Amino acid sequence: MSLNISSTQNTQQFLEVNLHTISLNISSTQNTQQFLKVNLHTISLNISSTQNTQQFLKVYLHTISLNISSTQNTQQFLKVYLHTISLNISSTQNTQQFLKVYLHTISLNISSTQNTQEFLEVYLHTISLNISSTQNTQQFLEVYLHTISLIISSTQNTQQFLEVYFLTISLNISSTQNTQQFLEVYLHTM
């Protein structure tokens, strides 16, 4: 399934039909893995404009609904899902819109410390955004840190969340200016 989708209208119609018609009750980890490998690997969309990016993500992420009830499924789902989604974000505008839609639509109910740790290890490790300028760093952090909402109700969860979160976020801060802006935005949003 290789479709060059050049217009917003085609993108929306393709996704509505394709993702709406694929209805698989995935009850086991094996099915989850196989489904994701085939489905996400074969969907290849060249998204060249901000408009296409926004509409693609709204439809795509909204229509994929996987009930993940166990830690095992969560880990395998995230490994395959986040590894296979590759969007080349070349401008600050695309980065901002991508993050707003992407992070807002992914909703995983994390009810235990074990799930929190595994989710963060895979999720934060696989998201790789090349932030080359101060402007990108600021906008990335404003959207990213604002949209991640994890309900941390106990001291144990707080500790594990921070250990994994700070370990996995890797931002190359090479200058004093970047360091200052990173801390200003980061500490303001926490």
What can you see in these coordinates?
It is built from nine helices and no strands. The protein is an all-alpha fold and 190 residues long. The chain has one domain. α1 (8-21) runs parallel beside α3, α5 (92-105) runs parallel beside α7 and α6 runs parallel beside α8 (155-168). The N and C termini lie far apart (42 Å).
Q: Please state the CA-atom Rg, rounded to the nearest Å.
A: 18 Å
Q: Biggest β-sheet: count, sense, barrel?
A: none
Q: How would you sum up the global shape?
A: globular
Q: Proportion of β residues?
A: under 5%
Question: What is the terminal separation in angstroms?
Answer: 42 Å
Q: Topology, please?
A:
Layout: H1 8-21, H2 29-42, H3 50-63, H4 71-84, H5 92-105, H6 113-126, H7 134-147, H8 155-168, H9 176-189
Helix pairs in contact: 1-3, 2-4, 3-5, 4-6, 5-7, 6-8, 7-9
Summarize the structure.
The protein is mostly helical and 190 residues long. Helix content is 66%, strand content 0%.
